[in-house]
């Protein structure tokens, strides 16, 4: 059982009152792993913003690490700016370091990094990694491992912005070549947001289907 505090912020209630009928309950949710830094290339943040806009347009909820900075903050801000659902999960220990986002639909504050990953997985229908650092790789490889051993059967993908995951894929291929891995349970690796979303969440509503 994950022990947590849940915050429902006044901003969301105000939006509900001022935009009655415009916000929606997401029919599906995508867990996004990404960095708390912006990275060296502007394309990383640009991709996060574009993904956030598409999630809101397609009525797909966002589940992510709860920060207001870096690539994480960019995707959350884009979802919220387009009246989408953004749910954050953040441990007590990094609440201040990652500057928790205080305008989310929900913010769950949990006791550990392990609890963070477990709750993010529980609340999501699929997983997608964007560029990030060690935390992003930890989250990605944990859900890949969980899928490999049968803990979940949710699809996992990589949004390969500027070829960021090329070396990661080579590492996985090396593990396969050396006999340590039969296959990596990745549903898709692509720089295309549309292709990734249509592969990971085929039942999600698309802009022309509203």
Q: What percent strand? A: 15-25%
Largest sheet: 8 strands, mixed
Q: Class by helix and strand content?
A: alpha/beta
Q: For the record, what CATH class applies? A: Alpha Beta
Query: What is the CATH architecture annotation?
Result: 3-Layer(aba) Sandwich
Mean pLDDT: 87
As residue ranges, the low-confidence spans are 8-22
Overall number of strands: 8
Radius of gyration, in Å, reads: 17 Å
- What helical percentage do the residues reach? 25-40%
Question: Can you lay out the helices and strands and say which pair or pack?
Answer:
Layout: E1 4-7, H1 10-18, E2 28-33, H2 42-57, E3 60-64, H3 70-81, E4 86-91, E5 106-110, H4 113-122, E6 126-129, H5 134-148, E7 156-159, H6 166-177, E8 188-190, H7 193-200
Parallel strand pairs: 2-3, 2-6, 3-4, 4-5, 6-7, 7-8
Antiparallel strand pairs: 1-5
Helix pairs in contact: 2-3
Keywords, separated by commas or semicolons:
210 residues; alpha/beta; 7 helices; globular; Rossmann fold
Q: What does this protein look like?
A:
With 210 residues, the chain is of the alpha/beta class. The protein is built from seven helices and eight strands. The chain has helices at residues 10-18, 42-57, 70-81, 113-122, 134-148, 166-177, 193-200, and strands at 4-7, 28-33, 60-64, 86-91, 106-110, 126-129, 156-159, 188-190. Helix 2 runs parallel beside helix 3 (70-81). Mean pLDDT is 87; it is low at 8-22.
């Amino acid at each position: 059982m994950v022990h947590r505090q849940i915050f429902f912020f006044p901003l969301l209630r105000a939006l509900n009152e001022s935009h009655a009928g415009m916000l929606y309950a997401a029919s599906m949710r995508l867990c996004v792993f990404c960095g708390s830094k912006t990275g060296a290339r502007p394309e990383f943040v640009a991709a996060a913003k574009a993904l956030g806009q598409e999630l809101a347009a397609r009525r797909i909820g966002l589940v992510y690490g709860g920060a207001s900075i870096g690539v994480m903050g960019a995707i959350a801000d884009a979802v919220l700016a387009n009246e989408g659902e953004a749910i954050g999960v953040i441990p007590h220990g990094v609440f201040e370091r990652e500057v928790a986002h205080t305008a989310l639909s929900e913010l769950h504050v949990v006791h550990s990094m392990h609890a963070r990953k477990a709750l993010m997985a529980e609340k999501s229908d699929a997983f997608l990694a964007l560029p990030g650092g060690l935390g992003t790789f930890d989250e990605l490889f944990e859900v890949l491992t969980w899928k490999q051993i049968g803990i979940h059967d949710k699809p996992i993908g990589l949004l390969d912005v500027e070829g960021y995951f090329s070396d990661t894929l080579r590492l996985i291929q090396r593990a396969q070549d050396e006999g340590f891995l039969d296959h990596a349970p990745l549903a898709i690796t692509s720089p295309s947001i549309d292709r990734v979303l249509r592969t990971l969440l085929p039942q999600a509503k698309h802009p022309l289907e509203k």
